Amino acid sequence: MLRHYAYFQVLASLEEKTPAWNAALAGLSVLSLVEDARLDYSIVDRDWTGVKAVADSVEAIKEGSPLRRPLLKVVDELKGAANWNVVNQILFSYGRALDYDGHWNLAVDVFSTVADIALEDRVPELAIEATTALGGAARRSGDWNRSAEGYAEAAHLAHTIGDKQAGLTVRVGTANTQMAIGNIPAARTIFDDVIAEAEASGLDGVASRALHGRASVAHLQGQFADTIALAYRALEKTTDPRAKDGITADIAAAFQELGMNEAARDAHMVISLTSRYQWVRWQAAINLMELAFNEGDEKSFEEYGRELKYSALDPRLRSYFLLYYGIGCLKFGRDEEGMKCLADARDFASKHKINQVMFEAEAALAEGEKEIRKAAAAKHWAEPASPEVLHVAEAFAQLRKTAVSSPPAEDFV
Length: 413
What we know:
Layout: H1 5-13, H2 19-39, H3 43-46, H4 48-59, H5 68-79, H6 84-100, H7 104-120, H8 124-141, H9 144-161, H10 164-180, H11 184-200, H12 204-220, H13 224-237, H14 241-257, H15 261-274, H16 278-294, H17 298-309, H18 315-331, H19 335-351, H20 355-375, H21 387-405
Helix pairs in contact: 1-2, 2-4, 2-5, 4-5, 5-6, 6-7, 6-8, 7-8, 8-9, 8-10, 9-10, 10-11, 10-12, 11-12, 12-13, 12-14, 13-14, 14-15, 14-16, 15-16, 15-21, 16-17, 16-18, 18-19, 18-20, 19-20
C-alpha cells in the first residue's frame, strides 16, 4: 500500500491552499523527509533546498495551530545532529495533536510511523505508547480491525518487556473498544480487573483511566449516580488535563440524566472555559444540545445542532448527535425531520457497529412520534439525589466559579 495513503486521501478531498490542505501537505512533507533522512542522512545537507521547501510548507500552517510547533521542531532537529529518539518523540507529539484535533486517520498513520521507527531503533517503551495510541485513534475513526491490531501489538510488547503499567493501559484500551461495539459485560469485567490491579500496585494514572471507563459503562447501563461517583474518583486520581476534561464531560452528562441541570451546566461551563481539546468540546456540545431540548430551548438546540452537523465527529459522537438531534426535532414538533434523523442514526450506527446507539434509535423509531415526544420531555428526579452526588455537584459549582474568574488556559502540545 502507498505510504501515508491517509494524507493523500485528505489532500485529494480538500481545496488547495486552504488551511487544512496546507496542514496536511506540511505533515506529509515532514514524514517523507524523516523517512528519506533515515535512509541517507546526508540528504539533509545535500538537498538543502528540499529541506527549505519542507520548512516553508510548515511555516504556511496558520499561527496557533497545535500541529505547527511539533512539525517545526522535527525540521529543526533534522537540520542539526539529529537524535532519532528525539525526532520520534516529537513525531509522537504531532500524532497526539492530530488525535486531539479530530484527525484520527492521520493520527493512525503517524502513530504507525512512530512505532515502526521505535521498533527499528529498539525503543520498546515508545513503540508500546505509539501502538496503544494507534489503537485508540483507530477506534475513534471506527476502524475496529486496525484498533484491535494496535492494541494486540502493544500488549505483546508490554508482556515481552514486563511493563505492567503499559500492559494495564492496553487493557483499558481494549475495554474501551469492547464498550464502543456494544459488548458491555466484557468491558465491565476488564475495567473492574484493571482497577483492582492498578490500585493494588499504586498506579493512579492507570486506575483513573479504568475508573473513567467503568463510569462510562455505568452510564450506558443507566446507573447515573454510580457514574458520577466513579468518575469523580477518576478525576481525583489523574493529573492529565485532557483526561480531566473528558471525565468532567461525563460527569456533566450524568448530572443531566439525573435532571440536575444546574450542576450539569456548571460542569459544562468548566469544560467550555478550560478545555484545550476538540473532541471534548464536541462531546460537551452534544450534551448541551440534549440539555437544551429537555428544557424546551429550541434556539440553543439549533445553535448546537448547526455547530455539530458540520464538525468532523468520530463515528460514536456522530451516532449520538444524530440520535439526540432526531429526538430533539420531535420534541419541537418537527416530525418528518426527527424521524429521518433517527433513521439516519440507526443506519449510521449499524454501519459503524455502534450497537448501543443502533438499539436506542430502533427503540425510538418503534415508539412512534407521540411516544418520542414524551421520552424527550424534561426529566425529573425519580428520587432525591444521594449525598455523594450532591457533594460532587457542589464541587463543580465551586470549579465553575474558579473557571469564570481565571484566565483561559494556553494551548500546548
